[in-house]
Every structure is written in C-alpha cells, then in structure tokens.
Automatic annotation (TrEMBL):
Species of provenance: Litchfieldia salsa
Cofactor(s) the record lists: Mn(2+); Ca(2+)
Domain of life: Bacteria
Protein name: Mn-containing catalase
This protein's UniProt keywords: Calcium, Manganese, Metal-binding
Length: 293
C-alpha cells in the first residue's frame, strides 16, 4: 500500500521560468534512464522478489523514493513552464545553435499538457516499460540497477552543467547525491550476493554443460592488439575458476551455412538447377503446338 505526503522529498523550485530547459529536463523524467524507469524497475523487482525479505524491503524502499523523484521533477518542469505561452518557444531559442538542436520549447508542453510535464523523454518519445528489467535473478537485476543509476547520475550531472538557475541546481544536486548513494547501495548488494551466488549469472546452471574450452578466452576479432593489455586478457578470472586466455585472430569454428530450399508455397528463389529446369519446361511446346505457330 502507498500513501502520499503533500510535501516533496526535497525542494523543486526554479528561480525563473525556462521552457527550453523544461524540455531538457524531460530526459531524466521519461527517458530510458530517467526516474520513471528506475521507479518501475525497482517496484516490479520488489513485487516479484522471492528471495530473503530484506531484499524485497530494500527494493520497495528505493522504489518508493523514486516515486518521490518523479514527483519532484514533474513539479520542477511545470514551474519552469510558468508564464510560458507558445510564443516563448521562439524567445527561448534566440541562440541559433540552441534553436537548431532543441527547436526551443516543446510545443506539446503547452498544447497537450497545459504547461505541465509529460511521461516522455526530451525529444517527445513516450516512456515505455521495455526500459525496465525485472528478471527474478537478483544479481542480474542489481547489476542492471547499478547501470541505470550510473547512466542516470551521468545525465543529471550533464543537466546540472546546462543551467545556472540556483533553484534547479539545488534540486539536481540532491538527485546527484541520492544517485551516489544508490550506486553504492547496488554495489554493496552485488558484493553480498556474489559471496554466496558467485560472480557469473546464473550460478545454478551446471558449467559442465557449457563449451568450457572457450569459457575464459578473450578473442581479438579486430585489428590491433591493444586489448591484450587489459585485465580481461590475462591473470585469474573474476569468478576464481580459471585464468584468462588471450586469443589473437581466432579461427572460425563453425560450418559454412547452407540452407535447404524453401517449400514451393513460400515462393522463394529456388536453387539454380531448379530454375534451369523450370526454364526448360517453359520452352517445351504444349501438346498439338509447335514453336513455329
């Protein structure tokens, strides 16, 4: 069960309207790595959690906080649009470079949303649940969560650099700090799970069934050998099961693919022999006819 507190988790008050910046801010609301994505990702991971109760509780703790972040950013966008009629689109994009890249204010903020936020990214692409991951394997999910928080923090930091509004920066500095905590949180949870589950997902699959001769081979499939100096190319593997092997110019190990002809009802291109035969049949005269007729 959820309940709503009228006060925001943290202040979301710009110093002045800025409809162009409101468009940019949509990215961390409804973009792939925005607050809506992590909110839904953590909620479904929590609701679907079948592991120890501490993981379910932790997931729903952070998921509920992300709902608060969605509210904060939506509120900030709405206030950035205050007093911003449609003609401010041109005023907000007087800089030709800004106009070329951003096209000024998002007209849907005025036309569709009545000077409010929308569940879209900064170019108007609708948020989609396909951005979210909830696999049921907590180690796999927590690694996805770490990636989401890393990308999210990166985008918020970039947005911080794109404004001088002290009110906007104040809210973004709070979100950046929370993303710092959340990255640390997922790293701690990953470390804890790896101690019992191992480093490779899923740990429950019997490794005898995989092609073990290539399990730890780094294969160089591009020009140059700079990659050979990386941690991934030599020394003990991170799962502690073997040593990395570096393979320069690996040879192909598979067959040359040759597909069987498709059945007639597919009407594909038949093999050459069949095409020649079909051509010859077309050239044969029908009964009672000759080529001279």
């Amino acid at each position: 069960m959820f309940y709503h507190v009228k006060e925001l988790q943290y202040n979301a008050k710009p110093s002045s309207p800025d409809p162009v910046y409101a468009k940019k801010l949509q990215e961390i609301l409804g973009g792939q790595y925005g607050e809506m994505s992590v909110m839904m990702q953590y909620l479904f991971q929590g609701w679907n959690c079948r592991a120890e109760s501490k993981y379910k509780d932790m997931l729903l703790d952070i998921a509920t906080e992300e709902i608060a972040h969605v509210e904060m950013i939506a509120t900030m966008i709405a206030q950035l649009l205050d007093g911003a009629p449609a003609h401010d689109q041109e005023q907000g994009a007087k800089d030709p470079a800004v106009e070329a890249v951003l096209g000024g204010m998002n007209p849907q903020h005025a036309i569709v949303n009545g000077l409010g936020a929308q569940p879209n990214d900064s170019v108007g692409f609708p948020w989609t649940a396909r951005y979210t991951i909830a696999s049921g394997n907590l180690l796999a999910d927590f690694r996805a969560n770490l990636n989401a928080e890393s990308q999210g923090r990166l985008q918020v930091c970039r947005l911080y650099e794109m404004t001088t509004d002290p009110g906007v920066r104040d809210m973004l500095s709070f979100l950046i700090a929370r993303d710092t905590m959340h990255q640390n949180q997922w790293m701690a949870a990953i470390e804890e799970l790896e101690k019992t589950q191992g480093a490779v997902v899923p740990s429950s699959f019997n490794q005898e069934y995989e092609k073990q001769e290539v399990s730890y081979s780094f294969m160089n499939y591009s020009e140059g050998e700079e990659s050979s100096t990386g941690r991934w190319a030599s020394g003990p593997t991170l799962d502690g099961q073997a040593n990395f092997e570096y393979v320069q110019a690996p040879k192909a190990m598979g067959q040359k693919p040759q597909l069987a002809p498709a059945p007639n009802y597919i009407h594909g291109t038949p093999p050459l022999e069949m095409r020649l035969m079909q051509g010859a049949n077309k050239m044969e005269p029908q009964s009672g006819q000759s080529f001279l007729q």
